[in-house]
Each structure stands twice: as C-alpha cells, then as structure tokens.
C-alpha cells in the first residue's frame, strides 16, 4: 500500500488531494509502515484532545504522521524513546496487513478516493471483499422498523439499480438496509455494506451470514478498529461515510429521528444529491424541509428514483470528462 520501501528506503511517492472543509489539499508524501503506525497512535491517543478529523488534517498538511506525533509528544520517534503507543500501533499495522481483511490509511494509494472529498472522511478503513475504484454507486437507506411497503420499495430499487450496473450501498441494518442488500445479491449485483462496528464483528447478529455473503460477492467496509463494538456515535459516523462513498443517497422510508435522516442531511452538506421518496417528504417534517434544499429530489416511485439517479450519474460523468480534458 502506498509507497514501496526496501531496507527502509522509500522508492516511490504519491500525490493525493484531500477534502478538508470543502477545500482540495495536495499532499506529497513517502508513506510507510512507520508513518501508518504513527497515524494509528495519534488516532488512539488523540493528543491535546484533537478529533480524528483534526488529526487527519494535521497529518496531511505536515506530510508526515511521525512529524505530527513528535510535535505533540516531543519525543524521538521509533528510536530509543519510542512509546508503548507507537510500538503497539506498529505491531497492529503489521498484523492487519496479514489478516483476512484489507487495511488502508487515507494517504494510501488504495484508499477509496471518493471518501477524501468530504471533511468527515475516515482516516483509516478496513475492508473485506473486492474494492473497485471510482465505481458508480448509490446508497439505499431507511428505517430499521420498515413497513411492508417500504421493504418492497427497497427491494424494487435495488433490483432496478442492479439491472443498470449501479452498485447498491447500505448499512447492513435491519429493515430497509437488509432488503436492499438481499435483493442486490439475488440479482447478482454488487453491494457495499458500510458497517457501524469493527470489520471482525457482526451487527445485528442476525445478519452475520448476509455480511459474509457481501464480503464474498461485494465489499464490507468499516472505519472502526477491527474488534470495535457498535455505539451511539459509530452509526452516525457510518452514515457520513456511506454518504461520501456513494454518488447519491436514496431515502426509502424513515422516521423523524432515523439514521437515514442523518445521512440525508450529511449528503446535502457533502454536496451529494439526495432522492427522497414521496412517503418521506409527505410523512416527515424533516423530509418536507429538506426537499427545499439544493440537490434534493422527490420520487413518486422506484422507477422515478432510479431515473433521477441515472441523470445524476450521467451528469457526474460529463463533469469528470471535462475535468480530465483540462491541461494539468
């Protein structure tokens, strides 16, 4: 991952553009396991009470996690003064590289590029399955306690998106998420599960077999330490990552305080289009208000929602082609 090293010598460097508060930041770095370990130690210890986003921003600006650690801890890194936190982090990095999942930091070459576009991007990701760069993907989300109609709509949406070779993203929760994942797999499509626990955990436990099936045929992605349990904070963080990973979000059915509501609002903040079903707009106060925001659409049927998504994806493709034609 990232730079190739031999006997401690960096052979390559990479340049990436990271999104911090809507700005593009060019970062040139030589990234190796010592740097990865320093980033992990920073995220675990959070010196001076820094948030993960603040740590990632400092690392990107400094071009080095080791430099940031030294700045906050004022000690000789990876020498005689190496701290236990750094030693443990380096041990974990090397163990994760041998595990049956993939591990990447935000400055590694194989880190999902679209995640770097938003301020809340996860500094590290753990995945099982096949990563596909720049895939056409859309989130399908909604309530855990879904109605029969909501489940049928999620099923239909997933099958329509799969027929158009659009990756279906969801959060592996009960209800709408499960219906979307199951229908996509049944159609032989690709689905990505962005989970609110560590990559070696299952939640809900009833979806353990589904999670394994997604790992075999699609991708399971986590931004949390591999053995982490879910928490009240982790699931909204997961929603932010789902919004960033996909090109758009479709909200099938949601209550006034649903996690889908959180994702819809985050998607608007990220500049990602949102499609709300008519049931969400008519049936919730937040849906009615959000409908007025730029980039938010309402769909009266699954077919109309997919038609709107295709228009969004086609527009994104045209913009990408125009940018590619600009002189570097």
What report would you give on this structure?
- This protein has 328 residues and is an alpha/beta fold.
- Helix content is 44%, strand content 17%.
- The longest helix has 24 residues, at 302-325.
- It has twelve helices and 13 strands.
- It is globular and about 55 Å long.
- It has helices at residues 33-45, 52-62, 65-73, 84-98, 148-163, 176-186, 208-217, 234-245, 259-270, 278-283, 285-290, 302-325; strands at 5-6, 9-10, 14-20, 23-29, 102-105, 124-129, 137-141, 167-170, 191-194, 219-222, 248-251, 274-277, 296-299.
- The two termini are 26 Å apart.
- The strands form three sheets. The chain has a nine-stranded mixed beta sheet with strand order 5-6-10-9-8-7-11-12-13, sandwiched between helices. It has a two-stranded antiparallel ribbon with strand order 1-2.
List the topology elements:
Blueprint: E1 5-6, E2 9-10, E3 14-20, E4 23-29, H1 33-45, H2 52-62, H3 65-73, H4 84-98, E5 102-105, E6 124-129, E7 137-141, H5 148-163, E8 167-170, H6 176-186, E9 191-194, H7 208-217, E10 219-222, H8 234-245, E11 248-251, H9 259-270, E12 274-277, H10 278-283, H11 285-290, E13 296-299, H12 302-325
Parallel strand pairs: 7-8, 7-11, 8-9, 9-10, 11-12, 12-13
Antiparallel strand pairs: 1-2, 3-4, 5-6, 6-10
Helix pairs in contact: 1-3, 1-4, 2-3, 5-6, 5-12, 6-7, 8-9
């Amino acid at each position: 991952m990232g730079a190739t090293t031999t006997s401690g010598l960096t052979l390559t460097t990479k340049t990436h553009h990271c999104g911090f508060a809507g700005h593009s930041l060019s970062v040139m770095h030589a990234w190796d396991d010592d740097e990865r370990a320093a980033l992990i130690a920073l995220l675990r210890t959070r010196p001076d009470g820094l948030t993960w986003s603040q740590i990632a921003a400092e690392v990107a600006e400094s071009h080095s996690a080791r430099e940031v650690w030294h700045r906050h801890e004022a000690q000789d890194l990876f020498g005689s003064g190496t701290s236990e936190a750094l030693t443990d982090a380096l041990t974990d990095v090397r163990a994760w590289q041998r595990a049956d999942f993939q591990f990447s930091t935000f400055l590694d070459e194989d880190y999902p590029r679209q995640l770097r576009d938003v301020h809340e991007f996860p500094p590290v990701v753990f995945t099982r399955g096949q990563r596909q760069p720049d895939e056409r993907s859309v989130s399908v989300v909604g309530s855990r306690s879904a109605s029969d109609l909501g489940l049928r709509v999620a099923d239909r949406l997933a099958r329509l998106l799969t027929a158009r070779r659009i990756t279906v993203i969801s959060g592996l929760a009960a209800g709408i998420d499960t219906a979307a994942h199951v229908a996509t797999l049944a159609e032989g499509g690709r689905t990505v599960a962005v989970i609110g626990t560590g990559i070696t955990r299952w939640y809900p436990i009833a979806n353990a077999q589904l999670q394994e099936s997604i790992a075999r045929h699609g991708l399971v992605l986590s931004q949390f330490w591999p053995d982490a349990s879910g928490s009240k904070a982790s699931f909204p963080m997961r929603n932010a990552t789902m919004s960033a990973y996909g090109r758009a979000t479709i909200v099938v059915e949601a209550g006034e305080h649903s996690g889908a509501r959180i994702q819809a609002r985050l998607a608007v903040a990220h500049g990602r289009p949102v499609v709300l079903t008519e049931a969400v707009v008519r049936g919730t106060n937040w849906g009615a208000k959000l409908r007025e925001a730029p980039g938010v659409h309402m769909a009266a049927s699954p077919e109309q929602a997919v038609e709107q998504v295709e228009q969004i994806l086609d527009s994104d493709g045209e913009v990408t082609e125009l940018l590619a034609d600009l002189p570097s």
